[in-house]
Design brief:
The chain is an alpha/beta fold. It contains 12 helices and 15 strands. The protein has helices spanning 20-28, 47-52, 61-64, 100-108, 129-147, 171-182, 214-221, 244-248, 298-327, 329-332, 345-351, 358-363, and strands at 2-5, 32-36, 56-58, 69-71, 89-92, 112-115, 163-167, 186-191, 207-211, 226-229, 255-258, 279-282, 285-288, 335-338, 341-342. α2 links the parallel β2 and β3 (56-58). The protein is globular, with a radius of gyration of 21 Å. It starts with a strand and ends with a helix.
């Protein structure tokens, strides 16, 4: 199989989906990897390393997209989708529920889209999303500490002793809560169902647990110095838990960090930002809504994501789409679109399009 590895073009995004070591594994299995020149440069992997490990270096994006399977990190950008081979396979973060225009372009071109964010394992965990979520959660605390400084327009309080509200107890939420507690903050973690959390041995007495809905989140946000939102619904838009009025009721100089802004964020005042311009102030609150936070630590993030996706890329390349999906039910959960049809229920609901059961698309063959 020919595997394309294009250079990322999203603002501030220099991660690479496959490291040279991953390329070596794929080439050893008889596959061709076409890496766009400079694809790994930002993460510290030069073209020479890819060549030594068997990759073909191609000069431009169009050449990298001339492949049976395209593997990249971030969702397709406006200047990229036209390079995709009609009917080809795209394996990346997709976030189709939040980008209806791009979703329809990919459907019109009958792209098979497999989303990093909904690939699952046997226990229902998200093995590709998880390492990126963990990085984002850990990064949120030093970022918040900086934004609380007076020089940044913050309240002028240190993280030690600050009141930190973490909304959502997934991988990112727990990582953020632990990092905040370790920094000496007073941490409250809002969960949807407290009964599922009490037996979690990773949560210490330094992290207060609260079961809550939107009203509870709004109430707690008014007293917080920092709100870290980590709510994500795979394949769907993030539910709005904070209104503009709720944000206005927070104390001036407070900070809101939207880790899952790809899904739209939990606040009506949130909109995606970039590493080049990461913040804005709305209703007196500093909003940090960078859609690719792990790109701040390019090499570490690239190594983690490459390691996470390599088994799936191998399965696709070695066995083809049909068998790869048949052999791994969790992997099939990542298949969101195929042959012009939506094969993920959550995405179908967001796009207001019919949902086609995976069996009807693939397994009838």
């Amino acid at each position: 199989m020919i595997i394309g590895l294009p250079k990322e073009i999203k603002d501030g995004e220099l991660r690479v989906a496959l490291t040279p070591d991953a390329v070596k594994t794929l080439v050893a299995h008889g596959h061709t990897v076409r890496a766009q020149t400079g694809a790994g440069k930002g993460a510290g992997f030069n073209d020479a390393e890819y060549i030594v490990n068997g990759a073909e270096i191609v000069p431009g994006a169009a050449h990298a997209y001339e492949a049976d399977l395209v593997v990249k990190v971030k969702e397709i950008q406006t200047d990229e989708w036209q390079h995709l081979r009609r009917g080809g396979i795209l394996f990346s973060f997709l976030h189709l529920g939040a980008d209806h225009l791009m979703a329809r372009e990919l459907l019109d071109h009958r792209i098979t889209g497999i989303a990093f964010e909904t690939v699952a394992d046997r226990d229902g965990n998200l093995p590709i999303l998880a390492p990126m979520s963990e990085i984002a959660g850990e990064l949120a605390i030093p970022i918040a500490a900086n934004l609380l400084m007076t020089s940044e327009g913050g309240k002028g309080v240190m993280m030690r002793g600050a009141r930190v509200l973490v909304v959502g107890a997934g991988v990112a939420g727990r990582a953020a809560a632990h990092a905040a507690a370790n920094a000496g903050a007073h941490v409250r973690l809002v969960v949807r169902n407290l009964a599922t959390m009490v037996a979690d041995s990773t949560l210490t007495e330094k992290i207060a647990l609260t079961e809550g809905d939107a009203a509870k989140v709004a109430e707690l946000a008014r007293e917080a110095d920092v709100v870290i939102a980590t709510v994500s619904v795979p394949g769907q838009a993030t539910p709005k838990l904070l209104t503009r009025e709720d944000i206005r009721a927070m104390q001036p100089g407070g900070v809101l960090i939207e880790i899952c802004i790809d899904g739209g964020g939990i606040s009506e005042t949130s909109r995606p930002t970039s590493h080049a311009a990461p913040t804005y102030i709305e209703e007196g609150i500093t909003h940090y809504c960078v859609a690719n936070m792990p790109a701040a630590v390019l090499r570490s993030a690239s190594i983690k994501i490459s390691s996470a996706i390599l088994p799936y890329v191998n399965a696709l390349a070695n066995h083809g789409l049909l068998r790869a999906m048949r052999d791994n039910e969790g992997f099939s959960n990542g298949l969101q679109i195929h042959d012009g049809r939506v094969t993920h229920a959550g995405v179908a609901a967001e796009l207001n399009l019919p949902f086609v059961d995976l069996d009807a698309v693939l397994f009838s063959c």
